[in-house]
Structures are given as structure tokens and as C-alpha cells.
## 1
Amino acid sequence: MNSTSILPGKHIVFTDFDGTEGILVDLNTKKYYQLNETAMLVWKGLEQGKTVDEIVGQVTTEYEISLDHAKRSVEKLLGNFQSYKLVTSE
Amino acid sequence: MIHSETAFTNDYGPQRLTIELVNICNLHCSYCFRAEDALYNSKPEFLSVPVLRKVLSDAKRVAGTTRVIFTGGEPTLHPEFETVLSAVAESGMKSSFVTNGWHFERVWPAIAAHRDSVTHVAFSLDGITREENDRWRGGGSFDRLVRAFARCHFSSLPFAIKVVVRRDNSDQLEQIAIFAARMGANALHFVHTMPTSAEIDNTSLALDERRLVEEEVAVLSRIFKMNVAIDVGYYNIDAQPPCSPLAGTSMNIDYRGRLSLCCNLSGFRNGTDETDVVADLNVEPFVEAHQKMQDLSLAQHQKRINRLATMQAEGVTPDLFTGSPCLFCLHSFTKVPWHNSTDTEEPGIRSLPVFNSIH
């Protein structure tokens, strides 16, 4: 997962709810997805073009968790984004 | 409850004011019925908050008004938008507004601060994809609308979507309804294109085509859980008042503080007369202005009843500019001076579609 670049889908509209919660709208399926604080951090990282490692690093900076824990959480989130076709891999 | 202006029942909704907060708009939709000069070529004008406060107080006392619907131009461009919402809340009334959604994120804190008095928001939409919508409204408009829908949906603020029916989207009403439902809209209100020029008049849907649209809307209103209705330009030849202005339950105040019959007549693009304006509330007492409005509303309804009765006696089915209350008023208030309303339809045209309750 780290070797490929993951980007938000162009068909996704993101709304930031005061930095603590976010909403994704998939314009293809017309479905809403609700993001919690961690998922927001990951999504914003993808929007900023960060690598997975950089996002994992940011998670460990913002939350008091181990690198392994952060990596597992981020990869799980990215897997969810991919399974719902919310992101594209390059 | 989101109220439609359509009145195919005897329920015209609460006593309400439509109030044009501003004359200007940040988008440039070619079919808009507000005068081009006011929207784009004049200096920005905003309804003053002191006038608004006085109007709210007087309307509540004299007319029993309980609801205010803000329009424009684009109402969120009012520099004191939050104070405007506060004024309504302090009056004990409820408010809603019609917006293109462009500035929704900016005004959201003001809306959230007045959540108890803001009943809903109505968003104008032109298509269910970026391409379809932004072709009419400009790049970036669709994404901003979708963000606004998300904001409302997840904040439990009811919202309506308003769509102008044109020749290019008249066969997509069901897809539009599915989109609105998926976005969580509480209401979907269609609007017929208004005849703002001879060219638009001639290229818009003809009466038979409009009736097909209205029948489809009636079908959709039965299928969908959200309120689906047609707000403007519909055909209705019943004897009862066809809309809230002619029933005396709604009035319009323009951005200059003048009282007029209906928001759809006010500042009409290419109109040549303003006989629908009864008073300048900057100088005239509301109680007198309100009486003039009641007289005008009754007289206008009677005028249309007489016209319909004459046509019925002659065995003629009313044409679009008589059968549609909106177009009848546009014509009789000289808003469409290029139009010669002598055309009639052959008898035997299909009957009025029956709408469900629209609250």
C-alpha cells in the first residue's frame, strides 16, 4: 500500500464539520459517508497528497499511540475507502 | 413542514411574507425572472434591518403573519444576514430562505445560531451532475450545493430543492427526484420557466408539454416520501384561489421596502409596470398598505374568475396565460408586454392533475 499513491476520487465531495467530523458524498452512487476525527485526518492527508507513511506519522503525532497501531488504523481506513471506491490508486 | 406555493387544496399554509433581502446575485442564470439591471448593473441594495424589524412587528400584529421566506437576488449576500435571522427570531416568527448555496458554508454559523427559528432552506438546482448543473450556474456551484445538502442533512435542518423545468430537463424529473431523495431533501419543488422575453416565451414548454410535466410531478408526489410539488407556472382553473397571494395568505416585500402581491411578479425581467406594488412601507403605515393588498388580492382573483367564466361560457378551454395563475398575473400586471394573450386551446384538454397534500 505504501508504494502506491492514493488520491481522493474526483467524484467525491468532502465537507469538514468543524474539524471533528466530516462527510463524503459519492457523486456516482449519491451516498453519504460519515468520517470520524481520525478518518478526517487521513482523508485530509490524502487531499494534501501525503504518502501513507506521512499520514501514519501525523496520526502518531496527534494521538498518543504506537507506530504499529497507527499504521494498522490508517491501513484499515484506506482499505475501507478503497472498498467503497472513494479513492483511486496510482 | 415545507410549504409549497401550489394550492390544489384549500390549505394555503400559514400567513407569511416573502421578503427580498437584496437585489443582487453572485450567479448568472439565464432563465432568472428578476430584472437583469437590478441583479447585475445596479448598485447593491439591501433591505434595511430597521425597516425589516418594523415590518415584522406590524405584519404580526395586523396580518397575523407567522412565517418569513427570504429571497433575493441571493439573500445570503445581505451584509447583516445574521442580524436578519435574529430579527425574525426576536419577533417570534419562523424563517426560511431560498439560496443558490454558494455562500452556505459562510452563513452556516448564523443559521446554526438560529436553528430554533430557521425552519428550512430551499436550494436552487439545475442538474444532478456537475456538468448539467454548472452549465447553467457556473463552475463549482454543484459541489457547493452538495456540501450544503450534507451540512443540512447531518445537522437535521430540513431542506428543499427547487428545480426550474426546461425543455432540456423535462424528461429527467424522476432522476432529479431520486437524486433529491438520496441527498435527504425533505421537499422537491419544480418550477416552470417564466416567460421573461419573447424568445424564452416561444422556446419554453407549450401548454400540453407543461401539463405532461405536471402529471409526472403528481405521480412523483405519490411515489416519494418527500414532498414533491410544482410551485410556479402550473395550470389550475379551479374557482378557488389558486395560490397563497390570491388567497390573501402571503405578501411580498421587495428590497426597497415596498409591499407587493407576489414574489414571482416583483422586479420581473422586462416587465413594464409595477401595479402589483401597493405601498412603500418606508413611508406608509402597514395597516393601510395591508388593506390595499387585501383589496388587490381580491380584485385580481375576481378578475381571473370572470375571465375563466367568460371562456367557459364560450366553450373555450383557457390558454396558458389564463389557465396558469402565475402567467395570468404576469400578463394582467403588464410584466410580459410582448405577449398577446388571445390564443386559446381547443376544448377537451386533459383535466387538472390531483395533487396530494403539499405540507
## 2
Amino acid sequence: MTEAPRPSLAGLRRGDALPPFTLHISSADVAAYLEATGERCALWSTLVPPLALGAFALAGLMERVELPAGILHTGQEHEFRRPLAHDEPVEVGVEVGARSERGGAVVLALDGVWRAGGEEVGTSRTTVLVPPPGEARG
Amino acid sequence: MSAERTTAGAPEVAPVARHLDQPRVDRYAAAARDPNPIHRDSREALASQFGRPIAHGMLVLALVSEGMTAAFGERWATGGTLRVRWRAPAVPPVTVTARARARGVADGVATYDVSCEAEGGEVLLTGTATVPLG
């Protein structure tokens, strides 16, 4: 079976939505995240740090689009409604909330909604800048 | 959890400082499943506008979230908000300090100006965070 081609991030338009995906963040995932960030907090022995959920959702997004060379992550917003338990499945939906172009550079705001157990547990807005093709050195 | 209150009426949030070196950035890339080569010793990182690997913005931002968690515990994950812009990349090895300065309290919600600075004083990130005081 051939995998469907991933859409180019820079080619997405306002209102475009990616197919939702589900994350299962295990205790081992949380432990590796905390070891990498250096945070130590007993709270996270059973719960997922909210920014870890943001990071894993962002990784899920990156797996589903073609990242242009030189892309820069310029801004991040979150609203945390409730923490997830380890291994609790969470569905991530992402759509393009805003798109603008200036001088060939594209700025995209990607809005994420996280749902678990039938309720919204958090939201995100990730802003990225895609430089003009001739200036992408990354 | 800190019980100290600032003059703005909001709880104090202690700064969080951490040394970000390339091994930590590599561990973060693996843990957060971030494949972007700009964060590792790669041709792409050398060819980028920064000329060397840079730390993940989300790794820098994690220090802000750590400080808010230390001050507010589960309340941070149950009603907290965060809105930031990155101003400059963190180039490892670098010690980064995250701070949250209370701006005020309104309708039971504390607002903080948050920032991360490199050891030389360069501002890496600025923004705001809010937490319900419940």
C-alpha cells in the first residue's frame, strides 16, 4: 500500500483541517519528556504535563504535513482545561486559523483542539513562519 | 507551592534556570518526537540562518510551564493559559532563566508577564500567562 502524500504546510489555506489523530501518552513518554526538560514534579507521576501534551500534539502535526525548509516556530498559545492521565487517549484536531503572505513569506496560525473523554481538555495556537523559497537556508 | 503574594496580589512564581546543552536538546528531540534537523548537529543546522543547532522553542517554553506548575500545581493544568512569542533562538550550550512577573489579579484570575532570558541577558521569549486563583 502506498502512503498518501503529506500536504505541504505552506500550501494550506485558512479553514483547511487535517484529519484528526489520537495520541496515547504513556508513563514512559512522560518520564522521557521530564528527563529531557529537567522538570521534577510528583504531580506528573500520574498526569501528563500540559506543555508535554502541547509538544506531542505538535509532533503529531509535523508527522502529517511536509515541513518547508527554514520554517520557524514563532509563537505558541495554550488554554489548559484539565490534565490528562497517563495513557488516556486524546484526539487532536488541527485547522488553519489564519494565513498571510508578505514578501513571499507565509505566516500560518494552526489551531489545535484536544478532546478526551468527550470533553475539550485544551487548545493550542501554533504560529509558524515559512520564508520565501529563495531565502530558506534550513 | 508558594504562599507568598506579590504587590500585585498574585502568588510569587520562582524563576527556573536550566543549562541547555546539545545532549539535552538531543534528548528533547527524541522525547518530543521532533525530527527537525535544525535542532541537531546537521548540515541543515549549519546552513540555517543561525549557523548552528538551536534548542527547541518548546523546550525553552517548558521552563515557564515548570515555574507555573511549581507555584500553582494542578491549577496550572486546569485553567491556565499561555501566550508567547519567541524573540531569539536559544543556542546551546546556554543557561536559560524563565521568569513570571505578576501583573495583577482580576475576576479571580492572576496574570503574569513571562519571559525567558539567556545568561547574557538576551531575551529569548516573551508573553503572558494566566491562572485562576480558585
## 3
Amino acid sequence: MSTECQKTTAKAIPSTRRVTINDAAHMPHDYSTTPGGTLFSTTPGGTRIIYDRKFLLGCRSSPVAKTLPQGLPNIPGVTTPLSKDTDEKANNGELLNNNTTAPDSSNTGDDSQFEMDI
Amino acid sequence: MNNKFDALKDDDSGDHDQDQGSPKDSEKEKTEDEEQNSSRKKMSVPGAGEHPLQYNYTFWYSRRTPGRPASTQSYEQNIKQIGSFASVEQFWRFYSHMIRPGDLTGHSDFHLFKEGIKPMWEDDANKMGGKWIIRLRKGLASRCWENLILAMLGEQFMVGEEICGAVVSVRFQEDIISIWNKTASDQATTARIRDTLRRVLNLPPNTIMEYKTHTDSIKAWVDFHGLVNPSGGC
């Protein structure tokens, strides 16, 4: 392990950080995880804010995550739909990429991983 | 003088991400940098109650204009910044308002790089680096891309500061995802990235994963095209 250590820059130990929980989906899924991401103090590279996939997917349902970001460039076919009738939707801030999964649906977990056949 | 790198867009290996680099371009880049710096002085910050990420990231989009040969288009003309974010929630705001890579048309790419790193070889963070490349048959890109970037944002790779960004490239017959790191010569890091990719993408054991250093990518291009003077981008 020690041979793999990389140069890291020293950072102060973060002081208390408050994490507001507005939604059950933001609670960690196991007891070794803290709300707001687990801080590991001993990983290579120093302190990191780590989130697993399931937690990140859970945050997708928060109200902030659904609002239109400020300054989103208008790129037809990318940030706005190409066809006319759906244009209005996009202008009203509707989601183009809402294919996945409410946080409570069971397929956000690891077993939703599909088998890949390449 | 559109340069050698443009042709890399053709080789389908995700190399399209880093061309340009003639002396002329670097001047142009300077002015652009200034603009970007001034507009970006205010770095993204997590909002109240949001979940901060280890790093800020920027989404980029690039597309080759159809009907024009690659050699007449500079990379910078074709790449657009979509936006930067600092928290999990801000990430979803952008991601949810962008179409999925599998639904993109034409020869296009999404790039997600740490804020301040351009998705180009020439960036200081990339010039000694390389990337893991995975070719995907059609239909898999959206899901793989999502898993890849969630792993990156969530710091699943455990390689310190090494990760630079990720790219998904939509091509005619296949799609390619790649993840870039800073130090191509650091084998412990590249091995760890490979193993993490296998885990987070749930790839079958026989999936071919290829590591390419950026300098090799440039060299390969130069050899193929017989350019005498390879300097510029590397």
C-alpha cells in the first residue's frame, strides 16, 4: 500500500458540516454512511466526499434537481428537443432526460445493472 | 491551418476530443481563456442543503457539423460549454435537461471534466495523461455513461487527484466511453481505474478495454498521415 501513496496536498480537517435532510431518500442506506456523503479520512489521496450510485440516484428527485439550470445554452437536439411541438415543454423547463427511476423504485439498486453483451 | 488533430475525429477511438494546438490556436485560446475566466470567476458553489461534490465539474458538448469535412473545422468551434456544477443536485439539474447520449444524432460527444480542465490534450492536466476506452455496441451508451459519471462524481475511483474527466462519443456504428487521467505512466492508478470501471459498469469479463496515452494517440495520427512536424499539440 505504501508504495502506492501519492503526493497529496494537506488540507485542514473539515470542521462540522450541517446536512439538511428534507427527504427520506437522502438518508444513507447503511449505518456506516453519514448523510451528505461519507468522509473517509484515510483513503489514498486524502479526505474525499464519496457517494455511491444509489445515493446519487436518490438525490435526483429533490425539487432543486428538477429546476431548469440558469444559463443553460439552447442547443437544439441536446438541451432542447428538435421537434416543434415539444419545444414548448422544454421552454417550460420540462425534463428531457427523465428516463430513470424514482429513488424509491427498486431498480435503482445494484441489481438493476443489466447484463451487457458486447 | 486546421491541423493534424482534426483527423483524429475520424479514427473513432474517442480521440476527437483533443485536437487543435497550432501556434495560432494557442493565441486564440488565450483570449478565450480570459473570457472564460472572467465569466467563471464565480465558481459554482453548492446551494444550502445540497450535497457538495469533491470537485466542481463542467459539461461540454461537441459535434462535427454535418456536410463539412473535419479538416475545415476546428475543435474549438465545435465544442460548447453546457454548464458547471458543485453539488449532486446541481448535477441532476443539468443532466436532466440534456438528452441521453444514446439519443444524440450524428457525430457528437458529451464531455464531463473537472472545472478548469478543458477536454483537450493540450490542457496542462491532460498532456501527460491518457484514457481508458471502452467500445459499446449501439443501445448501451446512455446507461454506461450514467454509471460512469456517477462513479466519477461520487469519487468511486479512489485515485486521488488523478481523474480528469469522462467522454461519451456517439459514432456511426458504435459508441465509445472513455475516462481520462493525469499521469499515463502511473500504472497503479491506471490499473485501479480499470478495475473500478469493470465494477461500476458491470462489464462482462471479456470486454476489451484499451488504454491509450494521449501522446501515443498523437503519434499514431502523425505516422498515419506522414506529417513531418508533429509538434504543436504535444
## 4
Amino acid sequence: MSSRRSSSSRGNISEDEINELISKLQALLPSSRRRGSGQASTTKLLKETCSYIKSLHREVDDLSDRLSDLMSTMDHNSPGAEIIRSILRS
Amino acid sequence: MARCQGTVESLCQGLLDLDDDRFSAMCSAFGYLQEWPDLGAMCGANLAVPAVAAAAAPSAGDGNDSSSCSGSGGIRKRRPDAYLDAKGGANDMSKRPRGKQLTGLSEIAAPGKGKQERPKAGTKKKAEAASTAAAAAAAAAAAAGQKTDYIHVRARRGQATDSHSLAERVRRERISERMRYLQELVPGCSKVTGKAGMLDEIINYVQSLQKQVEFLSMKIAASNPVVSFDIVEDLFGRQLKQAAALPAMALPAGQLEPSCLQMSPMQQVHPSAAAGGSTGFGLEMVVNNLYAPAAASCPVSAAPSVSAAAGPSTIEPCLNVNGTAAAWDIGAQNLFSGFDAQFQSVESDCLLDNLKMEM
């Protein structure tokens, strides 16, 4: 019982922190931004975060692939490609 | 009790993907129904919903519950267990690990609780119930149903005391479940201890990912015209050589002057494009490449005109790639058909605008 109580108080503190961070996180998610500021459940939010991160991963991979494709197609034109590469690197 | 509620909520979570708000609303709606016998008769999922309501009600609105409560602990205890069991049985499919765990906990914890509060028959019952299977759970639910609403109230009241910890435990459990999942997704998150730190890390990571996506798409947008530049060079390199060889050479100096004048808008384009990034460089490249042969084959006065032609011609495909300016086709083609084609400074301005837009 006592352990439960202590865990609950601990939970409250972290809950506040979590709420704060959760709302921060919520602002980052496109879906929750759409839905408005209504407090969605934390679980849902984290679920959304998971899928959002996954989609971002996919997007980054896709874009990197495209970019590397672009770079590879440019390789024969070395002077132009070099310049472009230097630009992209910056 | 805590476990009971935990199970209940987990079940609820599994069955109904409700927000907390709706959840609590539903709970309060269900909470006062006195349909336990009926529900008890029903099995599995049907049972679960009211059970959820019962469990959730305390966590959501303790005030209501406690006010309506009159408490004798024994029944109270017994009842959650019954629900727990019922739920554990019903729940197994959806939340297997948790359900098991909770059931096990309830078995262990039940005696402890019984001691601390009042000694009751409930403890035994709990243990029994916990160990029983789904069928037994249904039976227990039916038994609980016989006790009807007053048990219900008590159960709530009993839960009211630990509802916070229970709800939080369940919530934290759910959160940590997700967090564990996120931990796999977010690099470096496993090093951070504590949910707050992890959330921080996740937020940072999401932000960095967003920036990365933005950055990459910007790069691609910037390098797209550059890519077309290869083709462009092939296409226009030829045309330009022709243009440089034929009309420019043939043109008297007087006629070249206007094309030299065209250089001024061109030069405006140039810096802005260069400032814009890769397109500008691509443009410069073309100009330089083409400039050399043109200068070699043309009189000095023709050289600027060639570079002037090269500029817009390079830009034209770039713009086409981005689907911005179809009008430029005309301008560039006019240019290629001969340097006498009137290359209005208006067009150059237009080009400038387009370029800027593109940037």
C-alpha cells in the first residue's frame, strides 16, 4: 500500500512534467495540431508520435535516396556536380 | 483493487479506444446504471464495458463516487476482484501480457490489502477468482451482479482511495509501453533515464527530423533544376554554338549592341540567381562553358551576347522543370532563332521575377 502511495506521488510529479512535455510534443504533431488543442490521451499522443516519427523516417529516407540519385546522375559532369555538391554540403 | 482497475482500464483501452474525457463521461453514464445482474449474465465484452465504467468512474470523478458511497470494505474488495477476473478472462486476447501480469499481481496483492484494510472474505474470493479462467470469471461476475448497486457504490468508494495511484499506474504503464516503443525509434533515447528526459529526447528528435525533411526537400528542390541542367547543356550547347556561329558572327556590330544591352538584365539575374543557390551556379557553369567557345569563335562584341543568350536559355529549362514559366520557352526560342529576335528587357524582368520566385 505504502509503495503504491509513494509511486502515486512520484507519478504525480512526473505526470506534470510529462503533461508539459506532452503538450510540447503535441504541438509538433501535425495530426494533433489539426484536431485542436484538446488534450488527447497521452497514450494516443505517443502512438501518434510513433507513427509520425516513422513517417518522418520514411520521408527522410525517401528524400535522401532522391538526393543521392540526383548526385549520382550528376557525377559525369564533374565540374558542375562538384559545385553543386559543395553547395549542398553547406 | 489497484490491479483490478488496472485490468479494467487496460481492457477498456483494448476494447474502446476512447479518450480519457470520453472515457470518464462514459464511466459516469454507466456508473449509476444498476444493470449488474444483466451484465453479469452477459459474458466477456459486454461485461467489460460496465466494468470499465465502474473502474473509470472513480478515477475520473472521485467526488461523485465518494459522496454516494457508504463503505464497508469487504464487499467492495470482493467486487473489483470479480470484475477483474471477468475482465482478465475477457481481456486476455487484447492485452495478454498486461492482463496476466495484473491478474498475478491481484493474487499476490489481494491478501495484503485484505490485511491492511478490514479482513474479509473478499481476499479469498479474490485469490480464487484470480486463479479462475474466463468461465469462472463469468460466474464471478454473475455473483457480483447479485449484489447489485450498493456493492457497486462501495467498489467505487474503495477505489476512490487508490484511484489516483491506480489510474496513474495504468497511465504510466501505457506511457512506458509507448515509451519503450519510442525508445526503439529514437536513437540515444535508451541512454536517457526517466520519462521526462525521454520525452525531451523525443521532442528534439522529432524536431530534428522535421528540420531534416525540410532541409532535404529544399536541397532537392534546389538541385532539381541543376539536374536538368545536364540535358539543358546538351540541348542548348548545340543550339548556342549554332547561334553563336551563325547570327552572332554575321551580325554587324551595330546590331549586336542591343544584345549587349540585354546583358544588363542578365547581369541582374546573375547575382540574384547566384545568391539563390545551386541554380545560380548551374547558370554560371553554363555561361562559362558556353562562353569559352563563343568567345573563341566570335568577335569580342559577340561574346556578351552569347553569354546573355546562355543565361536565359539555361534558365528556361530550369523554370520548365519547376513548372513555373512556360512563357520563357518563347523567349528563349526567339533568342535561339536568332539574336535579332527581340529579347525585351521586360522578358528579362519577367525572368528575374520567376527566378526569384523559384528561389
